[in-house]
Predict the 3D structure of the following.
Amino acid sequence: MTAVRRVESAADLDRFVKLPFQIYRDDPNWVPPLISDFKNTLTPGCNPFWEHAERDLYLAVDDGKVVGRVAAILDRNYNRHHGVKVACFGFFESENDSQVAAALLDTVKIWGRQRDMDKVYGPANPSLNDEVALLIGPFDSPPMLKMSYNPPWYATLIESCGFAKVKDMYAYVIPVDVPVPEKLQRVMTRLKQNPEVEVRPVDLKHLERDIVFVKDVYNDAWSHNWDHVPMTDAEITDLARQLKPLVKPELCPLVFYKGEIAGMCVALPDYNQVLKRLHGSLFPFGWLTFLTERNRMDQARLWTLGVKYKFHNLGFDSLLYYECFLGARKLGYRRGELSLILEDNIAIIRPITMWGGKVYKTYRIYESPA
């Protein structure tokens, strides 16, 4: 019989964090997270998300062996912003066993009902602003940085527990060596020559200033998105701390119109190409691997791109793609991923396809009554 128990101790947390090393032991595409960073993500006091959210972590145990895990999560800011009563399940992992999955996800539903929630969304790891959604397919390549990955059978397990699709998201891929269409090149050149338009890379020496611009755009451009919830100042500051060592300014353009921030783009080198070789730790020799391998990365993920609503239809989205595209080419990258894109976000899909982007992975968020 599978028993589900709450994580109560440091030893339990260690089992929770390290379970994927068992689940994915034979999967060449899985990328181990840094164990220390993952524990910080889960720990109140280390991750500012938990200032407005709560969670319980659970392990599924069968005959003394950990065979699954899940987090039950309630984000008060999300519910307040959308006027809903939603709990989330996150960090779901399971052996290919429907009884294990049911025991874990039923635990989350009960947890949600005890807090007067009427729905459960997921996966959210830990929030819908973070690593989110289940990979539906294909499963033939490693995920890029801050993208989820899972075995093919997870969809069947989750759906067998009464969960159904609420929204799909796409990852697009585009090669960097494709020529810029001549007509588009002319339009971009003319736009950059407009004296009222300024486009520049993020300035790492003044990141505290520029992160305010990023937050301004983020909380405006995504304000009507299905899954959006404004990030707090503490979350933005912590995100900047995490990303500063990873950022290449060439991949992070900002565009201003008449002196006001109008749009921003953040693309990140695919450090998963390095993390895959670290086996979850920088010690004792991971630092050396990190330093030697990081210059061999040849792809990037366009993580977020947005234009404030009042500046829509001025071509700034294409300008940001263009600047990021040139930056990736300058760095010698061979391809880029643009993700996650809501399936019905036509305003963003249109310029991606104009650039030659193709859907190459699909992700899904599920929902169920609590």
Observations:
- The domain at 174-362 is CATH 3.40.630.30 (Aminopeptidase).
- The chain has a mean pLDDT of 93.
- Residues 98-114 form the longest helix (17 residues).
- The chain has twelve helices and 15 strands.
